[in-house]
Amino acid sequence: MIEIIFLSSPDSEVLGNYKVFYDSLSIGRSQKNDLIIEDPKVLDFHIILTSSKNGLICEGAAESISFRANDQYFKGKKTFNKKDKIKIGNTIFEIVDFALEPASEKILSLKESYEKTLNAYPEQEKIIDEMENEISRLEELALNQPSDS
């Protein structure tokens, strides 16, 4: 689990609290990141945050990428703790919390999240059911394909 709060950014959409229930989080401008920031000084793939038992590891997505934390510049990997502030480009966030998630807790968190989503948006259950049916149909078709040998 990683929880951070964005304090300032040219991308006002990113401001606020983010909590994810997995142990790694990529941040950058590219759509392929877990968290996308529209900050012209943030690279496509800027940093990766990873929970560890010793702290939250912040690592540049490439060796040459630097970031600023607690008024110092860093390259490579650096371990941080709660309340530490990290700056990438013109965006600043603070570490709120982090923890390694045991597999059973991850599954429970996903179930709880799924149930909350369905309670908030009950119409999505029908869409999910249709998707599950379509996947089952495709699996069945694939199993019934004649082999090329």
Short description:
26% of the residues lie in helices and 37% in strands.
Tell me about this structure.
The termini are far apart. The protein contains two helices and eleven strands; from the N terminus they run βββββββββββαα. The chain is of the alpha+beta class. 26% of the residues lie in helices and 37% in strands. The chain has helices at residues 103-120, 123-143; strands spanning 2-8, 16-20, 24-28, 35-36, 47-52, 55-60, 66-69, 72-75, 77-80, 85-88, 91-98. The radius of gyration is 20 Å and the shape is elongated. It has a six-stranded antiparallel beta sheet, with no helix packed on it. Strands 4-3-5-6-9 form a five-stranded mixed beta sheet, with no helix packed on it.
Task: Itemize the secondary structure elements and their pairings.
Blueprint: E1 2-8, E2 16-20, E3 24-28, E4 35-36, E5 47-52, E6 55-60, E7 66-69, E8 72-75, E9 77-80, E10 85-88, E11 91-98, H1 103-120, H2 123-143
Parallel strand pairs: 3-4
Antiparallel strand pairs: 1-2, 1-11, 3-5, 5-6, 6-9, 7-8, 7-10, 10-11
Physical arrangement of strands within the biggest beta sheet: 2-1-11-10-7-8
Q: What does the largest sheet look like?
A: 6 strands, antiparallel
Gyration radius over CA? 20 Å
Q: Helix proportion of residues, in percent?
A: 25-40%
Cα shape: elongated
